[in-house]
Write a structure and sequence with these properties.
six-stranded antiparallel β-sheet, elongated, 43% helix, alpha/beta, five-stranded parallel β-sheet
Length: 955
C-alpha cells in the first residue's frame, strides 16, 4: 500500500519514511502541496499525509484541490501538523474534506493505528469504524478565503513559536524510534540509503580519534568539497568548519558530554559563501564502537523567514509605539497574559517583567474606574459583548495616563477561553479635547464679555429678529420685551437714544439703497438699556440682495462698548491733567532758572538801600525815596518767593505741627487782611492728625485763599475756615489728580461770593492767570497754593458754581510725630557781634563787598575770599582764630560744602553758615536742607543776617 507524505521539512519526511517504512508501507515523498498534487494525479496513492505550512502550496490549499479532483477525492487525506492552535483549525481542515486532523506530538503506535483505521474505513465502509470527516460547505469562495487566511495566520504565529521545540522533539522521537524500531546493525543497507538520500549534512567521526570516517553526499555538495577532502582528517583541520568547532577543546567537550549543539552559526563553503546551519553532534555505539554523528542542517531559509518575521514584528511594534497602541491577550484557562512592546511602553514596564493576569490588571486603573472595567470584562467573557472603554491608569512609574482598551473574546463552544485586544495611550487626545473645551468656554466667555449680539432685518416685512445675546447687550431678555422679533419703530423706541435715532435710521436707509452688493458699514451710537442707563454700542452690518439687485435683508452684530467709551473719556481726562502738569512744570523750571541771578541782584539792592537809609535823616526826602526802593525790592523778593512756591523749589523748613494751632495763630492777621465787612468763621475739626510742613507755608496758603475769597465777595459776605480728616482708597483717588491712597488732614476755605465758570476752573492754578483787572493781581496766588501743597505731597480740590460761591479743600498727608509751637514770639532787636572773626566766601564780588560791610556793621571781624582756593589758603595762613565760615553753595572750583570740609581738617572747631540764591532743587543734593545744617536763602536783610550768624555761632 502506497502512502504519499507531504512536508517541506526534510527531517520530518525522514522520520515519517522511517516510521511508515518500518510498518511495511511504501512511501512517496513531496516537499510541498503543488508537487504532491502532481504526483497524486500521476499515480494516485492509497493515502496522503500532509503538513499544513509549506511553500508553493500549503496543506489547506492542497486538501481543497485534492477533494475537488474526481480521481483523488476517494483517497483519504490526513493532516499531520505541529502548529495546532485551536478547534477552529481542526473544523476548517475537516470541512475541507480531511479524514483526520492529527496534532504533533503523537505516539508512533497511535499514529500507525490512526492510519490503519482510515485505510480500513476506505476498504470496508460498513465496518463501523468512525470517520471524522465533515462534509465541506457549499462553495463560498469569499468565505473560504476569509477563513483560510485567518487559519493560516494563526498557524504561522504558532509555528514560529513551536518550531524549535518541535525540532528537538522530533529529533528525540527519531532517536527513540531508531532504537525501538530498527536494529541498526541489521539494517545497514536501509540506513545507508537514508544516509545517502538525507537532505541534512551528516558526518561520522571516530569518537576516540576524532577522525572523519564518513560524509554523506548532501554535505559534500553543500560545502563544495570532495569526499576525500573529509575522510581521514580531523574536523578542526577543515577550515570550512572554523566557526563551528574551533579547537580540540570542543572535541574534548563532545567526548565528555556526548552531545553538542550549535545554533545560528555560519558555515563557510568552498566558494566563499556563508550559510546558516544548525550543528548537532551525538556520541553512540555502532558495532560496539563509539562513533560521533554530526548533523549539519541548512537553516538559511528558516533564518530568513525568522528575520522577516522579526522585521514584521519590529515594524508592528514601531507603528504601535508611534501610534501609542499595544496589543494584549489573556488566556482564561491558564490565567496568563501576553503583551506587545507597545503595551509595555504604555504601562511603563520593561519587557520581561511580570505581566498582570486577568485578576490583577484592573489594579493599574484608578479606583473610580475599576467597577466599570470589571463589568466590561464580565460582559465580554460571559455575554460575548465587545469591550471598549476609556479610563485613567497609574503606570508602574507613577504617571497618570488616559487609555482606551478594546477587545474581543475567543470562544470554544459556549466557553470563552481567551481575550485579545488593543491598548492605546489617548492622553494627548484627552488633553486636546480638554484644551478644546477650555477654548470653547473661553470663546463663550469672550462673547459674553464682549457683549455681542446678532440681529437680522427683513426689509420687506420691516421686521427685526434678535438672538439672546442681543438682548443681553441691552440688559434685558426676549421674554421681557415680547419675543425675538419687533418692527424698526419699536427697535428705535426701545434701544436707540432719542438724539441718535435719526442717525441710525439714516445709516439703515443708506445700506438699503446702496447698489454695492458687498456693502458693509460700522457705526457707533448711544443706546437705552432696560435699567434706564445710557450706554454705547458699535454696530457692524451687511446687506443681502435679491437677483434684481434689491436689498431684501440686512444683518449684523451689536457690541456693547460702554466701558471702552468710559475708558476713552477717562483717558482724555488724564491726558488733560498730564498736559496741565507738564505746563505747570515748565513754568516752574522757568521760574527757578532766573531765581539765582534775580536773588543776587535783590541782595545788593536790599543791602545798599539799608546802608543809605542809615546815613540819611528819616525826615529827609531822600530817605523816602530810598524807602520806596527798599519796598520795591521787598515786593520783588516776595514775587520771587511766590514763583518758587508755585514751582515747588523754594527752600522750606518743614516741622511736625497741629494745623488747628497753625490756623489759630494767623486768624488775627487774616481778619485784618479781609476787612471788617466780611465775617471770618473758624470751625476747627476734632481729633485732628498732625502734618509735616513749613509753618510759613500754612500762612501763605491761608493768606492767598482768604484774599481770593475777599475779592470774590461784593460788599458784605462770609469766609469760613474749617479743618477735618479724610481717607482715600485706590478707587476714590482716581477722581483726584495727585492723590495717593492714605489718610489726610483737610484744610478748607469757603466763601459765599460770586463763584466761577467752568472755563475759569480749567486754568485756575496756572501762573499769571487772573480774572482781576490790570494792576489788581499778579495771578500767582493760587499757583503758589498749588505749588506748596504739591511740594508737601498733598493735593487740592475746588468746587465752584456761578453765584454759589467757592470752596477750596487742601489735603495734606498725615504724619506721625509730636507737634511744635512754631509761632513763638521772635526777638525784635537785632543781635550784635562780639568781635568774632568771620570768613566770607562769595564769587559775586558785589555781594562779597556787601556782606563784609553788613557784618562789620554788626561788630564782627571779617575776612573775605572770592574763590574757594583763596579761602582755603587764607584759612591755613591766618594766625588768629576763625569762628565762622559763611560760604556760597555753588561756586567755581568746588562747592561750599566741600570747602567747609577742607578747612575743617585744620580747624575742626569752625562753624559754618551756607547761603545761596539758587532754588531748593539745586541745593538739596548738597545736603544743605537737612536738619542741623545752617542755611540762609538770598536775598536776606541785615536783621536776617544778624539772626542767622548768631544762631550759627551759638547753635
Amino acid at each position: 500500500m502506497t502512502i504519499l507524505i507531504v512536508d517541506d521539512n526534510e527531517q520530518n519526511l525522514y522520520q515519517l519514511q522511517v516510521l511508515l517504512g518500518g510498518n511495511g508501507y511504501e512511501v512517496v515523498a513531496a516537499p510541498n502541496g503543488a508537487e504532491a498534487l502532481a504526483k497524486g494525479r500521476q499515480n494516485p496513492p492509497d493515502l496522503i499525509i500532509s503538513d499544513i505550512l509549506m511553500p508553493v502550496m500549503d496543506g489547506f490549499a492542497l486538501c481543497r484541490k485534492w477533494n475537488q479532483d474526481e480521481r483523488l477525492r476517494s483517497v483519504p487525506f490526513i493532516f499531520y501538523t505541529a502548529t495546532y492552535t485551536d478547534g477552529r483549525d481542526r473544523e476548517f481542515a475537516l470541512g475541507l474534506g480531511a479524514a483526520r486532523f492529527i496534532v504533533k506530538p503523537v505516539e508512533p503506535e497511535v499514529f500507525i493505528q490512526t492510519i490503519q483505521e482510515v485505510i480500513q474505513q476506505v476498504q470496508h465502509p460498513a465496518s463501523g469504524a468512525t470517520r471524522e470527516r465533515i462534509e465541506a460547505p457549499p462553495g463560498d469562495e469569499a468565505g473560504y478565503l476569509k477563513q483560510y487566511n485567518a487559519t493560516l495566520i494563526r498557524k504561522l504565529e504558532a509555528k514560529m513559536q513551536q518550531l524549535e521545540q518541535t525540532n528537538r522533539e522530533l529529533e528525540l522521537s527519531l532517536a527513540d524510534h531508531r532504537h525501538m524500531e530498527h536494529d541498526l546493525e541489521a539494517s545497514e543497507t536501509r540506513y545507508r540509503r537514508l544516509f545517502e538520500a538525507a537532505k541534512d549534512g551528516i558526518l561520522i567521526l571516530d569518537a576516540d580519534t576524532g577522525m572523519i570516517v564518513d560524509v554523506n553526499p548532501f554535505l559534500v555538495e553543500l560545502v563544495g568539497c570532495s569526499r576525500n577532502e573529509f575522510l581521514g582528517r580531523h574536523l578542526w583541520e577543515i577550515g570550512l568548519f572554523r566557526n563551528i568547532v574551533a579547537s580540540k577543546a570542543s572535541f574534548a567537550e563532545l567526548q565528555d558530554k556526548g552531545y553538542v549543539r550549535h545554533e545560528d552559526l555560519p558555515l563557510a563553503t568552498r566558494d566563499g559563501r556563508e550559510i546558516d546551519v544548525e550543528f548537532v553532534s551525538n556520541v553512540y555505539r555502532v558495532d560496539n564502537q563509539r562513533v560521533i554523528q554530526c548533523n549539519v542542517r541548512d537553516i538559511t531559509e528558516r533564518r530568513q523567514a525568522e528575520k522577516a518575521l522579526r522585521q514584521s514584528e519590529d515594524l508592528l511594534n514601531e507603528v504601535g509605539r508611534i501610534a501609542k497602541i499595544g496589543g494584549w491577550k489573556m488566556d482564561l484557562i491558564t490565567r496568563k497574559a501576553a503583551w506587545t512592546r507597545g503595551t509595555y511602553d504604555i504601562v511603563e514596564i520593561e519587557p520581561g517583567q511580570p505581566i498582570p493576569g486577568p485578576d490583577e490588571h484592573v489594579d493599574y486603573y484608578l479606583p473610580e474606574y475599576r467597577p466599570m472595567i470589571a463589568e466590561a470584562m464580565r460582559a465580554l467573557i460571559e455575554d460575548d459583548k465587545p469591550l471598549d472603554f476609556e479610563a485613567q491608569l497609574r503606570t508602574a512609574k507613577g504617571n497618570i495616563k488616559w487609555c482606551r482598551a478594546q477587545a474581543r473574546a475567543l470562544r470554544e463552544g459556549e466557553t470563552t477561553v481567551e481575550v485579545r485586544g488593543t491598548f492605546q495611550d489617548i492622553t494627548a487626545r484627552k488633553q486636546a479635547e480638554e484644551a478644546l473645551r477650555a477654548s470653547e468656554a473661553q470663546l463663550s466667555n469672550a462673547l459674553q464679555i464682549a457683549r455681542a449680539g446678532h440681529w437680522e432685518y427683513d426689509v420687506g416685512r420691516d421686521l427685526f429678529t434678535f438672538n439672546d445675546n442681543f438682548y443681553r447687550v441691552f440688559r434685558t431678555a426676549a421674554s421681557e420685551v415680547g419675543g425675538y422679533q419687533m418692527s424698526s419703530a419699536d427697535y428705535a423706541r426701545r434701544f436707540c437714544h432719542p438724539d441718535d435715532a435719526a442717525i441710525v435710521a439714516q445709516e439703515v436707509r443708506a445700506a438699503i439703497e446702496s447698489a454695492d452688493p458687498d456693502y458693509s458699514r460700522q457705526i457707533e451710537h448711544r443706546s437705552l438699556r432696560a435699567d434706564g442707563e445710557v450706554g454705547y454700542i458699535t454696530v457692524r452690518f451687511f446687506i443681502v440682495k435679491d437677483p434684481q439687485g434689491r436689498t431684501v435683508k440686512t444683518y449684523g452684530v451689536n457690541q456693547d462698548i460702554t466701558e471702552r467709551k468710559k475708558a476713552e473719556e477717562e483717558r482724555a481726562k488724564l491726558q488733560a491733567q498730564l498736559q496741565q502738569a507738564q505746563k505747570m512744570e515748565f513754568v516752574g523750571r522757568l521760574a527757578g532758572g532766573v531765581a539765582h541771578d534775580f536773588n543776587n541782584q535783590l541782595q545788593v539792592i536790599f543791602g545798599y538801600t539799608t546802608f543809605a537809609q542809615k546815613r540819611v535823616d528819616p525826615g529827609d526826602l531822600l530817605y523816602g525815596d530810598l524807602e520806596e526802593i527798599r519796598k520795591a525790592a521787598q515786593r520783588s523778593a516776595d514775587l520771587t518767593r511766590q514763583l518758587l512756591a508755585f514751582a515747588r523749589k523754594q527752600t522750606i523748613a518743614p516741622e511736625v505741627l497741629d494745623v488747628n494751632a497753625a490756623v489759630e495763630s494767623t486768624l488775627k492777621m487774616l481778619r485784618r487782611l479781609i476787612g471788617e465787612s466780611i465775617d471770618l468763621a473758624w470751625l476747627p475739626g476734632k481729633n485732628l492728625w498732625q502734618v509735616k510742613v513749613d509753618p510759613a507755608q500754612i500762612d501763605q496758603i491761608l493768606a492767598n485763599l482768604c484774599v481770593n475769597a475777599r475779592d470774590a465777595i461784593e460788599g458784605v459776605g462770609k469766609v469760613t475756615i474749617e479743618t477735618g480728616t479724610a481717607q482715600f482708597d485706590e478707587i476714590s483717588c482716581s477722581e483726584h489728580a495727585g492723590c495717593v491712597p492714605g489718610e489726610y488732614v483737610v484744610l478748607a476755605v469757603s466763601d459765599n461770593g460770586c463763584g466761577m465758570e467752568p472755563a475759569v476752573l480749567e486754568h485756575l492754578f496756572e501762573p499769571f492767570f487772573t480774572t482781576k483787572g490790570v494792576g489788581e493781581g499778579t495771578g500767582l496766588g493760587l499757583a503758589t497754593v498749588h505749588g506748596i501743597v504739591t511740594q508737601n505731597k498733598g493735593f487740592v480740590s475746588v468746587r465752584s458754581e456761578p453765584g454759589e460761591g467757592t470752596i477750596f479743600r487742601i489735603y495734606l498727608p498725615r504724619h506721625e510725630g509730636e507737634a511744635v509751637d512754631a509761632w513763638k514770639e521772635k526777638a525784635k532787636e537785632v543781635p550784635k557781634g562780639r568781635g568774632e572773626t568771620v570768613l566770607v566766601v562769595e564769587d559775586e564780588l558785589s555781594i562779597l563787598r556787601l556782606a563784609r560791610r553788613m557784618l562789620e556793621s554788626l561788630g564782627y571781624v571779617v575776612l573775605t575770599a572770592g574763590t574757594p582756593s583763596e579761602a582755603a589758603g587764607l584759612a591755613s595762613h591766618h594766625t588768629g582764630e576763625i569762628h565762622l565760615l559763611i560760604t556760597d553753595v555753588v561756586m567755581p572750583e568746588m562747592t561750599g560744602r566741600d570747602l567747609a570740609a577742607r578747612i575743617a581738617e585744620t580747624r575742626p572747631e569752625l562753624r559754618c553758615l551756607y547761603m545761596s540764591g539758587y532754588t531748593a532743587d539745586v541745593i538739596a543734593p548738597f545736603g544743605l536742607l537737612e536738619d542741623g545744617v545752617q542755611f540762609m536763602q538770598k536775598p536776606f536783610t541785615l536783621e536776617e543776617l544778624a539772626r542767622k550768624v548768631r544762631e550759627a555761632l551759638e547753635g
